[in-house]
Task: structure prediction
Amino acid sequence: MAADQLEFIEAWTPETGAARVLAGYADRFGGRPAGVWAAPGRVNIIGEHTDYNGGLAFPIALPHCTYVAVAPSGNEVIRLASAQADGLWQVAMPDVAPGAAAVAGWGSYVAGTVWALRRRGLAAPAVVGYVDSCVPFGAGLSSSAALECAFAAACRDLGEPGWADTLPARRVMVEACIEAENQIAGANTGGMDQSASLLAVAAHALLLDCRSGEARPVPFDLAAAGLELLVIDTRAPHQLNDGQYAARRATCEAAAQALGVATLREVPLSGLSAALDALAGLPDGPVAVKRVRHVVTEIDRTARFVDLLEAGRVLEVGPLLDASHESLRVDYEVTVPQLDVAVAAAREAGALGARMTGGGFGGSAIALIPAGAGRQVASAVAGAFAAEGFGAPAFLGAVPAGPARRVA
Ligand code: ADP
Ligand code: MG
Result:
């Protein structure tokens, strides 16, 4: 496929993002907001479907952000508009509760964030906000957490004096945004996305230990190693809410219970075959065996990936990415043909390794490629999609970026 027909989604500069939401705010609500905040989407390098198992994940924040122009509403009503959604979204804070009909739709991520911050005793105001984003949504790049975290940062800065931008405060915000997504938006996701968006460090990936809650930045300077990371948004429909994600989660929780452990993190690689033997005879045993094998080996792959990075052996990580994809395809069964074709085409075009990323069932893949090879690999992937009759994918260059922040 001709390189000039490829769609690359560029990250906006903070100036562009701020100008867009200031104009949108003036148009929809009139006047100027109190400020503009931005929060990044994320892409997970390795460690997939491990967060809700107390395991390890290793995301980076993308340079692609969701921008929000925000003012306190002055009363208890939240009013929102988005360049990515029609109409005005509105709710009165007293109506915000888990399962409440009043909080259906995209604004639930925002209302849930205010609600969850308040539950932690923080004086988060009801807000008026205008949203615009260059994070593709539903692409497995966590537009939902970017939306929550941008508003959490706005609430912090517009809320009670003394609620400073400290690491402990950010950790509380992570918890609140997870709760917003789980309880109010009704998406039962783990905590990786919100941690990446609020705790990321530029030029680093974040090693998340989802058992201890520790988030450790690890230098991830691909350019210095002559590499870059290509994100492939397959544009295949991505739907985590259709029960598949919940089913994977339920299987893992039931398996942990059957094994007598709090989470699958407690099963070391050395204990895997005994654990699988114990599960095999149970009802649904064959499925549990596959799911548990993925989780336990994926946690091990993530640890080994970080060890290689820290030993300066980044050129050797490719096979771990490939193995992660195979495990997600065969054992966790969360890939779709678009993801499998994307990684195969990327490898054939010279990627050191490639895998699906995010929850799966559509969404995105990543490929670790030689610096400068982005257009060539993208072209090969787009060509393979065309040959299969799939819709055209889009591409993003992923340089590890910083966390949610005020930009104007
Ligand atoms: P992902 O987080 O992988 O992009 P999700 O399904 O978790 O996918 O979240 C996508 C949802 O988040 C959208 O359907 C919408 O409700 C909400 N959302 C995210 N970004 C925006 C935005 N810029 N404007 C309005 N809603 C958004
Ligand atoms: Mg999401």
